[in-house]
Amino acid sequence: MESGTTKKELKFSEVYVSDIKILKTIFDQVSDINSTDQKSFGVPYLIAKKGDEIIAFASLIADQNHKINLGIYDNGNLDNEDKKEFSQYSSDFLKEKKEATFNNAELLIKNTERISQWLNF
Predict the structure, then answer these.
(1) DSSP H helices in the chain
(2) Lowest mean pLDDT among 19-23, 98-102, 105-109
(3) What is the pLDDT of residue 34?
(4) Mean pLDDT of 44-50
(5) Measured between alpha carbons, how far is 52 from 99 in angstroms, rounded to an integer?
(6) What is residue 71's DSSP assignment?
(7) 117 vs 13, 26, 31, 114, CA distance in Å?
(8) CATH number for position 28
(9) Nearest residue to 70 via CA among 100, 92, 96, 37
């Protein structure tokens, strides 16, 4: 279900399990992080699409101080204006969510580890 749209046919929607492999590909393309620190992939929760192509995703990432941060990863097809808009939309989306994953750093860390294991980071 599409959550919202913007100009230039950029569409935002929640992440589905079927999207995860594409998101990992985007992450691998932009990441220069070594394999022991793949926790920066986080827990993806929103995607940005142009047409049918996923070009970016927003992910929740817990840092070493258990602070929850937002990460935006894109495949290079997201210009600065669109990236800013996606970042703002992602932040606003988080403010509306009350689920534990979005607010509990310990749970986020556990979910990040599960995703990392599933994707064989």
Answers:
(1) 20-30, 80-96, 100-103, 105-118
(2) 98-102
(3) 52
(4) 95
(5) 28
(6) E
(7) 25, 18, 18, 5
(8) 3.40.630
(9) 92
Residue located via tokens 């230039």: 8
pLDDT at 18 over 70: yes
* Inter-CA distances, 83 with 18, 38, 42, 92, Å: 23, 22, 18, 14
Phi, psi of 67 (to 5 degrees): -95, 135
**Domain membership of residue 29 as a residue range:** 2-118
Token pair, residue 14, equals 């929640």
Of residues 26 and 113, more confidence is placed in 26
State how many domains the chain has: 1
Gyration radius of the chain over CA positions: 14
d(CA 89, CA 72): 11
Contact (Cβ atoms closer than 8 angstroms) between residue 15 and residue 8? no
pLDDT band, residue 94 (cuts 50/70/90): confident
Q: What is the pLDDT of residue 47?
A: 97
